[in-house]
């Protein structure tokens, strides 16, 4: 029987599930929309993955990452829970040896990770504004009536990209509307938007960072050829897009799960057939003191498996 | 008079005692909550920074409870915070609140103004000069005791075995100090509190990472404004030292004190012109933390805070020169702490790897 390791990355926009083998090669990967329902998406996604992979693959370990990593770890029974930044760095340094910079643009955040000798030495995430992230591109594509998959092709066809203010999503949008009303063609506007987003990324997330090649571009947005072109132009050299650019976080945490289980000796993974289980969260306000913490309770069927949200720790229960 | 003041960490315990013992009534400011923020955001200019908005909310809350005078601090130098008390006065007037805002400027700026304000507080409270000085002394002892137990809690928490035990012990210790009314009583309460904190069940085999917290004073001092950063880090197993305690300039057991001249430390990096607020401090303190063997530094900056933005763009060169990683967190209205948590977790991973690498190099050198 072959062994596999499961990685689940539940972000704001997408949920990625992968299974890798003992050598770290991707066996199967799934890119799903979270649609604001992380629990359901994970349950269903796991079920389909379970059906897809050959029955002779045994899951030896599982890990979770992304903004819903703690919740997901309780649903699937993860061996390790890791933040996205570390997970992406692990996957990238496995994909390209000697990588020094990772540009990652996802649904709601964008990050830069600087590595030296395989170790993360610096990183940054976008702070307050969502300009330059996948959701914003999604929105603008919808507004321009372009399918998001063709967004990049439009940008590549542009002859004279227009200049668009990229500092803030609202400014960018009004600038785009303005340019449209002046009669610029869609291709030039789309290309201008790509350049503006990259400029914004460099000035905001990339500010003060020591960007050196090889640079890896990953995250769902790396599929957008227009942005790749704009990034290459800005840097003055070609970035590398790893084949599994969309699911790098999930791969990274699967690799970490493999490492963890090697030390631990067993897995907590509950299996693929968890779609029958009812997961539920409830909350109450603690009356113990003036802090009035909102305590969240997490149930698996009828069993309480975790509580969190209390500052003093008296209600907390570790996930079993 | 009914007097109130901004809520900054646990200092309200000492200020409450002081106001009451100067012959006034104290309206204790509530810990900034969702409601404080709602009020603050609603009535402040949109572009104001988060400390301004929280203070607006706090002032409106204490005004509701009948406060007549709010005592706050002014400041000097190129940061708009120095002018906030004036803005707040206009704002409260516009909203028809009958509250006066009184700001103490640093005494060196305007000694006369400083004494005049002190005198007014003394006269209206009906105290003699001697009684007044005595009350100030007791309050100062109290602030010191509060800082002492809090500092200790940040060293104990990363070692605790049961999450929350340190925090519960700290709350009790603060309560002891709150109950004490004379200098000897405060000294006893402090001792009791320290003993209680030391009785926390600890795993002494851990070697926690050490992180310094720098940045703008309000978001550094008020845990409710910074997502309880120090507690969060402590529970992740990290020991923290904060650059600002109300008493830090007079003590020796903090990294930032009178002995280390942060201004001269910062000078090589901003020789051309000074920056206001705590911007210069942020740069100098990064140097100090590096020199004191800290693993990393977290800079807390209110979104759109000019001095901290300037500091942030200088910090990378300090970070390179002294080989100390710095994470800048911008604080704004967002109440979700997931973003902060992700960044902190990644930062800790980074610091751990860096420490491992250092240890490995040390061993290699020994072998050679």
Structure description:
The complex is a heterodimer of chains A (320) and B (368). Chain A starts with a strand and ends in a 12-residue tail after the last strand. In chain A, the strands form 3 sheets. Chain A has a 5-stranded mixed sheet, with helices on both faces. A 4-stranded mixed sheet of chain A has the order 8-7-6-9, covered by helices on one side. In chain A, strands 10-11-12 form a 3-stranded antiparallel sheet, with no helix packed on it. In chain A, a hairpin with a 4-residue loop joins strand 6 and strand 7. The mean pLDDT of chain A is 87. Chain A is an alpha/beta fold. Chain A has 3 domains: 2-89 and 249-264, ATPase, nucleotide binding domain (Nucleotidyltransferase, domain 5); 97-241, 2-Layer Sandwich (Nucleotidyltransferase, domain 5); 278-320, no CATH class. Chain A is built from 9 helices and 12 strands. Chain B is an alpha/beta fold. Chain B folds into 3 domains: 2-127, Rossmann fold (3-Layer(aba) Sandwich), CATH 3.40.50; 136-205; 208-367, Rossmann fold. Chain B has 14 helices and 8 strands. A 4-stranded parallel sheet of chain B has the order 2-1-3-4, with helices on both faces. The longest helix of chain B is centred in the C-terminal third of the chain and has 30 residues, at 338-367. The mean pLDDT of chain B is 89. The A-B interface holds A 67, 82-86, 109, 117, 119-123, 125, 127-128, 207-209, 289-291, 310-314, 316 and B 31, 162-165, 167-168, 171, 228, 231, 303, 312-313, 315-316, 319, 325, 330, 332, 334, 338-339, 342-343, 345-347, 349-350, 353-354, 357.
